[in-house]
Amino acid sequence: MKKNIFWLTIVFCLGLMFFVSGIQASNSPDLSLETITVTPSPLTNGDTATLTVVVKNIGNTKSKAVPLFLHGDENALQAFGVPSYNGMEHGVAMPELGAGQPFTYSTTKKISLPAGTYTIRAVIWPGNKPMAAAPASGSESNLSNNEKEIQFTVKQAVWKPSNLGPKYKIPVGTVPSVPKTN
Q1: pLDDT digits 0-9 by tens, 32-76
Q2: Sheet with strand 48-57: strands edge to edge
Q3: In the chain, what is the straight-line distance between the N-terminal and C-terminal CA atoms, in Å?
Q4: DSSP-based three-state secondary structure for 21
């Protein structure tokens, strides 16, 4: 008899736990990092490029205003002009988002980066605390969809007579001469 009561108590407690956690999850915001893009791709050093991050509240209630942090290659973040959020990290403050509401951060700049591959990672951190701190309890129903990363390639610009400007254009059919030295 004692074994039956023990197992009934365990089953009852587990059921209650799942019921309560289901209620909490269904009444919580869920900020989801939907996309992070760099266009054009690949880009050439000197191109005008756009970094875009889209976040959406896929939860059932309004979210708190929280930061959207951007990490990765420091030179790439600076090239896109990503602002400093708290003096230590790059990012922007997101407003409160209603259920189903998106938020878009976008920046367009003429990019000056050496040829190579760069990484930028976007992270939503609930609770409006630095990344080193734990997120605020109950501020988010699902932390697994709060981060995305993108790699993009910058090619070195190829200089041709046609893109040097009118001052340096060489007429078609001519060969530049080099003065003789005696």
Answers
A1: 999 999 999 999 999 999 999 999 999 999 998 888 999 999 999
A2: 31-39, 48-57, 102-110
A3: 115
A4: helix
Half-sphere exposure of 11 (CA within 13 A, CB side): 6
56 closest CA partner among 15, 109, 97 = 97
Alpha-carbon distance of 124 to 43, in angstroms, equals 27
DSSP 84: B
Residue in 47, 107, 103, 45 with CA at minimum distance from that of residue 77: 107
Distance CA 78, CA 70 (A): 11
**What whole-number distance in Å separates Cα of residue 133 and Cα of residue 103?**
24
* One-letter amino acid of 65: A
To 10 degrees, the CA torsion angle through 146, 79, 52, 129? 30
CATH number listed for the domain at residues 2-160: 2.60.40.10
CB distance 59 to 99 below 8 Å: yes
Write down the pTM of the prediction: 0.71
Greatest Cα pair distance, the chain, in angstroms, is 115
Q: Are strands 31-39 and 147-155 parallel, antiparallel or unpaired?
A: unpaired
